[in-house]
Amino acid sequence: MDWHYVPESGSLDFGTNGREIIVNSTAQQLHHDAVRFSDTDALRYAFELSTKVISSVDYHAMTHCLLSMIEEFPGVKHASSYEVFNHKAKNITGLTHQDELLFRRFPLSLEEEYEDEYTDVLARMLSENNTGISLLRTEKSHYILLDIVKDVNPPRAILIEGELDEYHFTILEGLFSVYASQTALLDKKERDVLTHLLNRQSLNHVFTQILDYYRKPENEFDTNNCSWLAVLDIDHFKSINDNYGHLFGDEVLIHFANIMKEQFRFSDFIFRFGGEEFLVILNQTNAAGAQATLERFRKAVEKHQFPSGKVTVSVGYSFLDPNGSMSQLLEEADRAVYFAKESGRNQVVNYLDAKEGLQSHDSQDIELF
Questions:
Q1: SS3 for 319?
Q2: Which of 224, 273, 62 shows the shortest CA–CA distance to 158?
Q3: Helix (H) or strand (E) holding 170
Q4: Which own/partner contact pairs does 210-216 have at CB distance under 8 Å and 24+ positions apart?
Q5: CATH number, residue 183
Q6: How far is the C-alpha of 269 from the C-alpha of 283, rounded, in Å?
Q7: How far is it, in rounded angstroms, from Cα 267 to Cα 270?
Q8: How many domains does the chain have?
């Protein structure tokens, strides 16, 4: 038995034609039907759960809270959340292969081409969905997709395996509406207004997730496949502001951020830390890979036509030790940048390579802003 969507009446019906049917609808389209099946208790319970969702301090805590709630619903076998890349804001009909969509799993996955037992289903449903809530029933299982693309970057998706009765579907619809709105608000809060990169505020929870990832027993740590923290500092940025004005300075920052988006992978994390200082966390690579990636980025900046003319960048990076602290690792990358600046700027420096030469310098003398 398959789900069918009847646009004329806006209701859900059952049918027997075909083996697999996807039902697409936005939360707004489903609202009339959900309320028809709901009662006061369901709405009250949805409100109580929603207050817990919106009380979360950040997106990751909120998503964990929502997934825990959904997995308690009768009929739910599994629920998982993803960030979606190469997914357009409008309907992306015509996508037929999973490799046209890339996913990052929550809790954190660092693989460049992440796959699990649900990503095929997720890719298929996303390719046929207009955003909102959609349903898929196959011979093997039933799925519910919560798809958020409006006002968020990257788009987010929650895939639920299982089947809900009308009572719990009403609750899910209400939770999804609150979650989608709150996700958009938190996404703006956790991003830099000028460049739209992740901001300094979001660094802490991303950093914590990465450390937690490597500390899990199933993720055996390997120095040939680990993470690296790099500080990217635009050379002579104060002179750009002084000579051309702050509007030109802002344009330089935007161009610089766009180069970061082009040069680094979606599985890496890029931040504007403040002023002309940016950060990147490179994942799943070794020292040679980190050096090559950062050197490629440095050259891309050097060759780029900025509004103010030629711009260069000094880069310092350090191995992300799972047993270290964020402040310690930031200090190491900062000191590597200091060494790069002292050595003539426009270069990439590994903290371990520069450590001996830095021993005579006090880290408190480093000034990057």
A1: strand
A2: 62
A3: helix 166-189
A4: 210/108, 210/110, 210/269, 210/281, 210/283, 210/320, 211/320, 211/322, 212/107, 212/108, 213/107, 213/108, 213/110, 214/320, 214/322, 215/322
A5: 3.30.450
A6: 8
A7: 10
A8: 2
Place of tokens 């994390």: 269
Tokens of 320: 């992300």
Mark whether 173 and 260 lie in a shared domain.
no
**CA–CA distance, 139 with 135 (Å, rounded to integer):** 14
Let me know whether 86 and 216 are in one domain. Answer: no
Q: What is the pLDDT of residue 357?
A: 67
Catalytic residue among 128, 161, 276, 277: 276
253 with 298, same domain: the answer is yes
- What are the phi and psi torsion angles at 290 (to 5°)? -65, -45
Residues 131 and 85 in one domain: yes
User: Tokens 């502001």 identify what position?
Assistant: 241
**Judgement on whether residues 337 and 257 belong to the same structural domain of the protein:** yes
Q: Is residue 194 part of a domain?
A: no
pTM: 0.75
CB atoms within 10 A of CB 107: 14
Round to whole Å and give the CA distance between 46 and 3.
Answer: 24
Is 83 noted as a catalytic residue in this protein?
no
Q: Which two tokens stand for residue 48?
A: 């109580």
Which of 158 and 358 is assigned the larger pLDDT?
158
What's 301's domain CATH number?
A: 3.30.70.270
User: Is residue 163 within 8 Å of residue 24, measured between CB atoms?
Assistant: no
Do 137 and 273 fall within a single domain? Answer: no
Rounded Cα distance between 53 and 48, Å, is 9
220-275 pLDDT, tens digit per residue, is 777 788 999 999 999 999 999 999 999 999 999 999 999 999 999 988 999 999 99
Q: Answer yes or no: do 32 and 153 share one domain.
A: yes
Q: What are the C-alpha distances in Å from 256 to residues 166, 282, 326?
A: 50, 17, 24
Look up the domain containing 170 and give its range.
2-189
Joined tokens for residue 272: 């504007």
pLDDT at 292: 97
